[in-house]
Every structure is written in structure tokens, then in C-alpha cells.
Amino acid sequence: MKKIALYLILLCCSFRLYAQDIPVEISEPIDISNFGWNKVLQMKNGNTVLFHFEMRKGIVVKVFDKNRKEISTQKYLPKVLDMNGVNIAGYKGLYEIGGEAVLFVSQDIMNHGTLLRLRFDANTGRAIAEDKALESPSFQHRNVGRVLKNSGEDEYYILSTYTTTTKENEIHLNLVKYSAKHEKLKELPLDIVAKDKKYDAVELGHVNIDKSGAVLCLLQFSKMSNIPGVNDHMLMFVYAGKDDEKFLTREAELPTEVQTSNMYYTFNPFGQSFNIVLETNRVAGFTEGAQTMKLSYVQPLVLITSSDFSSANLVELKDTIANKYFTTNGANAWKYKGDILHIYTNNRGLTTAICRDQKLYYRGEDFNDINEPGVMGITQYDDKGEEIWATVVPKAPHYYNAEKEICPVVFSRTSEDGLFQTDCLNTKSGFYIVYNDANNNFDKTLKDRPKPIGDVYQTNAVCYHLNRKREISKVYLLGKPEDGVFRHTCNNSSMLDESTAMYATVFEQRKGKDLTMHIAWCKLED
Q1: pLDDT (tens digit, 9 = 90+) per residue, 268-325?
Q2: What average pLDDT does this structure show over 419-441?
Q3: CB under 8 Å to 436, separation ≥6 — which residues?
Q4: Residue 438's pLDDT is what?
Q5: How far is CA 376 from CA 350, 393, 418, in A?
Q6: Cβ atoms of 371 and 382 closer than 8 Å
Q7: Across 127-183, where does the E strand assignment appear?
Q8: DSSP β-ladder status, 16-17 and 472-476
Q9: Are 401 and 413 in contact (CB under 8 A)?
Q10: Is 497 helix (H, G, I), strand (E, B) or coil?
């Protein structure tokens, strides 16, 4: 009875209200193409630096001052980075380091895996230096470089890993710490071999740095099996605190029926524990007329470990409360199953997961042929991984229209990718979900079944806000749209400044046949 009463109380906390618009500043039209790919960087001095990349063209760098006025434009043709092959290059991060805008890109150069470091003046946009921060020693020993930086620090890390082509059960890690002047401060090497050849392969999973400057890497060892659905694998935690001189390693066995597809973690300062979130593959069958079909979905689990990794407890992240809310308010018996997009643990040990529904699918090529509405779920868990509150909000799914013009690829992405992306953010005032949607979906409820979006160029940016009182509000991110005017954000261009809660993003404005590009600065605070 106590659990039922608690659920009813929590459910009553989940209601929608329509709040005031988010304060927003918008730049004058920017002279860049809507093709290619963009990224913004907000600097501590108030400037905003915009990078624009296009295939076989130089990098355009624009600087905006704290008054949102464009003060400089530069075009840089890299000397080492090959812009003819930027379509298959890898974007590894854009950071403020030592007062400069520093871009990291991975690319094969002369068959050597290379991590490039490009430094730019944050006041003029001029290139300062371009060098190889990491290079594979040979074709067989191919390094994979990852850049890790705490937003409050100027120091940063480069983690390099490689496995040999002949010994895939060995992995070699090297963590190098750099100063704001890009000088090496210390180096932590680690060579790992699967014990007694028990495992056939080892791969690096998620890597992250927390606010304290500690680095955690997750390795997965696996053994091939001829029995379907049975796997033999193990997780290894590789951890280094900010001031540690060597790695700490710990192991955890996984159930044989679990096959992980992705993993990431949050740190719980209240319980002094790590939440290692594992996305695991599952397959469910359903009947479509006379045809039996299979649907693949992801089942999230959380491995809760102590801060010294001496103990571990595997817990399934359930969607029970979200499903009760969905079936009560959604007029639909289809079971909601969340796929985590964003997860965060606060100082009180409360973990919030923002998820999309995995059960959406469609028949044929007609994007209007939809079986179920799109929804997003927000669930909060205690420090033991148990649900304590959840809600579900409608969100129309997007389907790419193959008949539209195909945009050039940059960093394995296109300019349209950001238009279809959902940004999940957290600030001191709560959580934000930013995406593009059609105007006629704005007031739709779960029962109304929002219509899927096939033409993103007829959409506007909208935003859900979950505040600390568990109240949900929904607003247009860039102000209430005018008739015939569409403002859709390129969400993968965005950056949230955690210190000021300022969200900056590139957006396209379409008015009839006229298209202009802009930057918007949105203040995400109550």
C-alpha cells in the first residue's frame, strides 16, 4: 500500500505547464553554406568561435564578441589535415585550452592513424599551429586517440589505445596528461593481456573524465561461442585519479545472456560509487498479419560499484513507472521500452535518465505508415538503481526523406544529421530536451499521436524542460514562430556552457525560398 501511495504522489507531480519563452539572442545572418558541418565554442572571455567545415574546402572560422556581433572571419587551409578526405576523418573535440580554441581531428596520414591538434586564436580566428598530437608507430600498430578534458580545467589528457593484428586479446593503453601549453606532464602506460587465453578478443568501451579529473576506461573481454544467445565475457575497469601515477584495474563478470552494445558511466558522490550503464541487445518477436517479425531493442543495465571497485551489483534499469504513466495517459497498450540518450547523477545520488522509445517502427518506405507514436521517457533512480519517479512526453519521430538532395559528408556526418538530432542537457535548474518539430505537433498529447516528420525544413526548434520540482514545460526554443517562418537548430553544432547555462547553437531560418544561417544563444535557467 505504501508503494502504491508513493507512486500516486509521484504521478501527481508529473504534469505539463507552458512556461515563458527561454531568453534568446540571435546573430545577424552568417555567411556560411547550409551544407557541411558546424561547431561552436563559447570562450571564457565571452567570445564565441564558429567553425564551418566542408568537403574539399578550407575551414571557415568566425568569431563573435560578447555582444553577439561578428568581429572576425578567417579561412584556413590545413597543411597536414587533408580536407579532401575530411568525409572519413574523425571529429575528436573542440575545447578552450590556454585561452585558445583547439580542434582535435583523427585521420589516416600515410597509412598511419594520426590525431591532429589545430590551435586557433579565439579573438581573431587565425590559425596558430597545426601538429600531430599522436601518430601510430606502424600500419599494424594502429593507435586510436581520445581526448579527455574537464570543463573547469585547462589541462587535458590524450588516451591512445591499440591492439595488434596478430594478438587481438592484447590491448595497450597510454594516458598522457598535457598542460595548457600542450607540454607533457605525465604518462601512464598499461599493457593488458586476456588471462590464460580465456578470451578471444578485448575492446575498449566507454572512456570518460569526471569533474574531479579522474579517468575511467571500460574494457570488454569476450569469448566466441557457437551457442546462440550465450556469451562469455568480462568487464575490466581501468581507473586513474587526477593525481595517480598508475592505473587501477578491477574485473567484473557479466551474465552469459548479456551482450553489451554500449557503455558509459556516472559518478555518485553521495554514495561514493560508480554507475556503469550497459546497453545490452535483446530481440523480441511480434506478429504482423500472417507474418512473424523480430524487433531488436536495447535493455539498459547498471553495474553499481564502490569507489574502489571492490564490489559490484548488476541491476536492470526498469521502465515500470514510465509504462504506468504511458498506458494511463497514452490510450495505447504498446509497452514503452527506453533507450538511454542522456544520464546524469547529482550530488544527492539521484540519477536521471532521458530515453527515447525503442518500439517505434514503420512499414515500407512511406514515412507516414507508422505503427506507434514516438515518445520520450524521463526516469529517476535512487543510488541502488531502483525507480522512484518517471514521466513520458510525446515527441514526433523524424524520418529522413531519401528524395531530398544528399548533403556532402564531413566527419562521417551531413548537415541534415544535426536537424534530426535530439540534444539532452542538464543545468542547475533541471533537464532540457531540444529537437525540431512541426508546429501542428506542439500541443499534441500522448493520446493525440504526434505525426512523424518527413520534412525537417518545415519545423521549428522546441524544448522540454524538467525542473527540480518535476514539472514539465514545453516552449519554442527560438521564440514563437511567425507564419511561414521556420527556425530549425543544427543540434550537433551546439555547446552548453555549464558555468553560465548558456546554450549556443547554429540554426537555419527559412522564409519562403530565402535561407539564412544564424547562431542562437539561449539562457537555460529559471
Answers
A1: 888 888 898 888 776 555 555 566 555 566 678 888 888 888 888 889 899 999 999 9
A2: 93
A3: 398, 419, 420, 453, 456, 459, 460, 461, 462, 488, 489
A4: 93
A5: 19, 5, 18
A6: no
A7: 127-135, 144-149, 156-162, 170-178
A8: parallel
A9: no
A10: strand
d(CA 90, CA 87): 8
pLDDT mean across residues, the chain:
84
Task: Tell me which amino acid residue 489 is.
Answer: T
**Rounded Cα–Cα distance for residues 88 and 59 (Å):** 16
Average pLDDT over residues 327-335: 73
Q: Does residue 90 contact residue 37 with C-beta atoms inside 8 Å?
A: no
3-state secondary structure of 472: strand
Give the Cα separation of 452 and 448 in Å (integer): 12
pLDDT tens per residue, range 110-126: 888 899 999 999 999 99
Grade residue 91 by pLDDT with cuts at 50, 70 and 90: very high
Rounded CA-CA distance 240/237 in Å is: 10
Q: Specify the amino acid at residue 199.
A: Y
- For residue 390, what is its C-alpha cell? 518517471
> Beta strand pairing status for 472-476 and 514-523?
unpaired
CB 63 within 8 A of CB 42: no
pLDDT at 97: 97
Nine-digit cell string for 519: 547562431
Give the whole-angstrom CA distance, residue 493 versus residue 38: 5
d(CA 354, CA 443): 21
Beta-bridge partner residues of 19? none
- Residue linked to cell 585547462: 154
**DSSP strand E in 428-459: where?**
430-437
Angle of helix 2-12 relative to helix 320-329, nearest 10 degrees, comes to 60
0.85 exceeded by pTM: yes
> Burial, 182: exposed, middle or buried (Cβ in 10 Å; 0-12, 13-18, 19+)?
middle
The grid cell for 361 is 517502427
Q: Quick one: pLDDT at residue 166?
A: 54
- Tell me the range of 213-217, 246-250, 440-444, 504-508 where mean pLDDT is highest: 504-508
What's the confidence (pLDDT) of residue 372? Answer: 47
For residue 439, what is the DSSP state?
A: G
Cell of 518: 544564424
Q: Write the single-letter amino acid at 518.
A: H
Which three-class secondary structure state does DSSP give residue 395? coil
